[in-house]
Every structure is written in C-alpha cells, then in structure tokens.
C-alpha cells in the first residue's frame, strides 16, 4: 500500500507482460467444519458481516485477481450462493477432499503451532490446513488459470495490499520455485502457485508442506531464504497470534481488535494483538502439561532428583476425572500428558485420557520413554485418545542410551516403537533424541532417519531446572538479554499430586497456584498468584523470585 493508501496493482503498466497471466483465487469452504476440525464460523457475524463475506471482500480488493472459486461440499452450494450474491465473478465448485489420512495428520500436527506459518508436530504449514490438491487442481483447469492464489476461508483479516504484493513477487521476482509464500502470521496472506505445479500436486496428492519442508533424501537451502519467500516486516512474522477466526481463542481476539479498529495496516493490527491484555483473552492457557506420576525407568540429564520425585504422592484417577469433568476446554487447548514421570507407568492412564477427551481436549500429546505399558498405549490409540506420541531416546545406540539415560533400554524402546508404528495411522509419532555431548555425533542420522520414517523428529536439550540439577546441555541457549518469561502467558503445569504450578522448572512447587481439589482452571490461570507473577516479570523483577532468578528456559515458547 502506498502513502495514499492505494493497493498496488501486481500487473501495473511497466511490469506486466503484453498478455497478463490469468490469476484465480481458491477458497476451501465448509459450513460445518473448519479445516482444523473446529466448528465452522464462515456464516457467523463478525463486526456486523459474515466471516466469508469479509474474506471475499478482501480478495475482490486485490487488483488483477480474476475469478474467485469457492470449493465446497455439494450439499452446501445453495447456502453459499445466498452469501456471495453481491460479490462479482465468484464460482462454486465441488470440494474433492484430500485423503482422510492426510487430513488427520495435518490437523494433529498443525494444532501444536497454530500461531506460526510452520512448525508444530511435523512439517505442515498453515497453507496445508485448507489445501485440497485435487479440488484446487480442478479449479485451475476449469478456469484455464495460469496461477492460483490459495487463501483461507476464515481469513476475515486478510490484507489486500499484502496479497497484491505476494502476487507481484510470485509473478516477477520468484525465479527459483513455482510456489510463493510469506511468513506472515496465519490469516494475513495466502499462497501463490503456478498452474503446472498445481496440476502436479493434484496428480500426486502433494501438499504445500511437502514442497516447503525438509527432505532428508534431497536436502537443500531452507525456502525461507530463497526467492519463494516474500519477506515481510518482522512485526507480521514474529508475532505469536493467529488471525484466522477458526478457534474460540482467535475469534475472541479478532472480535476485540475489530471493536478497537479500524486498522490502517497489518503491522498496526499485529501490534495491537501483541499488546492485548491477558484479561481480554480466552481465560484458559494454550497448553496444559499434566503429570500423572513421578515414576520413570530412566534418569537422563535434567531429571528431577530421586528424593524430590519420591516425595510426590500421585493422585489416583478419580480426582483427575472429577476435575476434568468440571471443565470444558477451549477448542485449541493443547494437553501434554507427561512431565517428570512416564504416563505409561500410571495404571489408570486410560481413565484420565477418556475424561480429558470428554471435557473437550481435542489435541492430546503423550510423552513417554516407551519402555513399558505398550499394551495400554495401543488401547489408547485404538480409542483415538492420543493425537501425538513423543518417544524419548537418550542415545541412538545401546551404549550411549544406557550412559545418558541411566538405564539399558535402547533395545526395548526400539522394539516397542516398531510395534506402535504398525498401529499409528491415527497418531503422529515423533521420536525425540536428547542433545548432550555424548549424542552430538548421532543427531543428524537420528533426525534424518525418523523424519523419513514417521514424518518428524525432535532434538531436545536438557534443562537444569532453574539450577536445581547440574547443567547438562551442550551450550546455554538463553539469549544474552533477559526478558519476561514467555511461558507464563501460554502454559500451565499440573503436578502428579494435584498441585498447579506456574512452570515445569519449578520442581519444588514454590509457585503454587492451588490444588485441583478446590481450584478451577480459570482460577489457576487468572488468579492472583499467577497474575502477580506475570506483573513481576513485566516489571523486570524476576531476579527477586525463586526459581525464576536462576532459570535458563525463560525464552522458550
């Protein structure tokens, strides 16, 4: 957008060829479910207009963009026509959905980083969430298009100037790849593709993440620093917010922002979202870490001392079932079952997972050493109680595993993992290797092997638990300038004895937020203890608080 507020034409005279290329937009629409599996909000009124009308209005403001193609289930076409009556040059075509296996894995993986264009469990991107290769390919063929702009239907805050700039970059500045994107926060822009790559993706079922991700068999430079990526103001790419109104959390945020607007540019909008007070956001954390037991077979660097673990008396299943039953979780809440102990050593794990699902936990992550309890895990997977499974390794061979993990378990975890993989079509399996000096030479081979095998892998660094245990990492990754802890506004930890604490580094429960017996999630999250802790961090007073003064993990998301 220029100083006069005009949106630049990507095909303006002096830059356009004699015959301008035909560019269409595709919008996958489902009036029942959003791409993440949440409730569709396309017909809901946002600031006095249905969400879908806002999205279409943003597209129609992009110069040189031709037909807008809505891809929707056939039974919804009539309902959609009533919404688009006043929008020119819009067609509705059938939504030929992607394979159910891909659908499940995209949803499971993307849930763990909804505020970033990529990340989470796997190599999926925000562009994968609503991309259906066959349907987009048919739309491109039907319209005889040269290029396709794929945008999200729930993009009520799509920025026409950013979309126009993306198209210009795609048409005239990206000479390396046939796809162009921007790392802006989800919901502000889209993905541009050339017709020939669209056709190839339709034929093979290839997804955008397959093009933009890491391929161990053919490693190359990250697309983030290639011409395929249109760089944007860091204010748009470094903000941990989702501007797609497809979850309760993002809907509430956008609704609040619109009431404060209008915003003259996306950077101003992003700044307002960043500074939105916690009290005006959804009264639940993004993630809860639920520790059911302090027991584990291994004792790797960063583990809680045995004496501390032995002093924790874990609750049985009934109190957890009662507490979970009193809550309805937000549709984007992440539940990690793990922590200091191994949940597969908790005898009533299935009962707790069932209660969590019944309370609305749509994204459940189980983290385990996978040395015992495989039968219980397979039953949980059969009941669709686990979306992502993290399996911890302490070495890529038996001697290293035993030396680092303090337990001779490499053969057992490998055998159990093979058994799990055979039954994991509904669960995304993520092997994780602890990065310490003994495993440095094993990191690359481990990562490449498991990315090829299961789709993703993680390299973890141990923590010193705010100085409570010896520092075992290869290097201290904390930035040189201390800032307020990021996790205080994102995560909550429930200890095995039922106490809520502000952080997983607090192994002595010094920052106690109350027991589950008489404290609700909202009271834990917005109660005086945690709000005062956040205020102290915002004022730079972490040096007066234990264990915060010694923490090295304050910068982690």
Overall description:
With 557 residues, the chain is α/β, with parallel strands linked by helices. Helices cover 31% and strands 13% of the residues. It has helices spanning 51-60, 77-83, 100-110, 133-142, 160-172, 195-204, 208-212, 234-237, 248-260, 266-274, 306-310, 317-325, 349-358, 374-382, 398-405, 410-422, 443-454, 521-526, 528-538, and strands at 23-28, 45-46, 49-50, 68-72, 90-94, 147-152, 179-180, 191-194, 287-290, 334-337, 363-368, 388-393, 428-434, 458-460, 491-494, 499-501, 512-515. The strands form three sheets. The chain has a nine-stranded mixed β-sheet with strand order 14-13-12-11-10-9-15-16-17. The chain has a six-stranded mixed β-sheet with strand order 5-4-1-6-8-7, sandwiched between helices. A two-stranded antiparallel ribbon has the order 2-3. Strand 10, helix 13 (349-358) and strand 11 form a beta-alpha-beta unit. Helix 4 (133-142) crosses helix 6 and helix 12 runs parallel beside helix 13 (349-358). It is globular.
Detail the poorly predicted runs.
1-5
Characterize the overall form.
globular
Through-space gap between termini: 32 Å
Number of helices, where a helix is a run of at least 4 consecutive DSSP H or I residues? 19
Biggest sheet, open or closed, and with what strands and sense? 9 strands, mixed
Strands ordered across the widest β-sheet: 14-13-12-11-10-9-15-16-17
- The percentage helix is 25-40%
* Structural class by sheet pairing and helices: alpha/beta
Mean pLDDT, all residues: 94
Number of DSSP-assigned strands: 17
In percent, how much strand structure appears in the residues? 5-15%
Radius of gyration: 24 Å
